[in-house]
């Protein structure tokens, strides 16, 4: 959600869903903001296999930007749209415990989720507030890690017993033919999407999103959808209409 107008529109739709009785939890990253602030301190962003290489300086910037800036901007937007939100990061109440990535030697402080403790979320949700979670977490020693937002969202969805996981991205969803934008797969089960990955039909940055969805479903989430956040009201279309707007993965 690079555009401020688009960001505000998505937040308004999220608040509408909250007003009609759904209980959303918002998990966010903030790549463009991180890149902007890294440039200010003279650090060139580096990526490997779609993941940000996170040295000590980058980790400090990531935490400041995600927790101190992006998170509070989203909380403010939710307030402006007429709801109330509570901003958190993975460190708060040990919501997320991290462990180093298996590729830590090349990625630095990029982490995986080793444990989720959702107890801090239940009273927030039950009180009618929207939790807004920045995906910075610490390991058992207190070392901070940068966690992929999609991965964290899937783990949190499973931990709170969510019915649905939605990943907002900048593509229309899973394509049957990666070279044909019109070949959107509207619905596929876990076996089918695994077959698409094995056949090479799903590749690149879509693979970790698919893996995140499959893992969430395996842990009890009913469905997971990958939708295009650039489409106006894609959130509402996916949840409130039969046709939806992206790709829904089912068990």
UniProtKB/TrEMBL annotation:
Gene Ontology process terms (BP): L-arginine biosynthetic process
Enzyme class of the recorded protein, top EC level: transferase
Top-level taxonomic group: Eukaryota
Signal peptide limits: none
EC number: 2.7.2.8
NCBIfam families tied to this protein: argB
PANTHER family in alphabetical order: N-ACETYL GLUTAMATE KINASE 2 (PTHR23342:SF19), N-ACETYLGLUTAMATE SYNTHASE (PTHR23342)
Name of the protein described by the UniProt record: acetylglutamate kinase
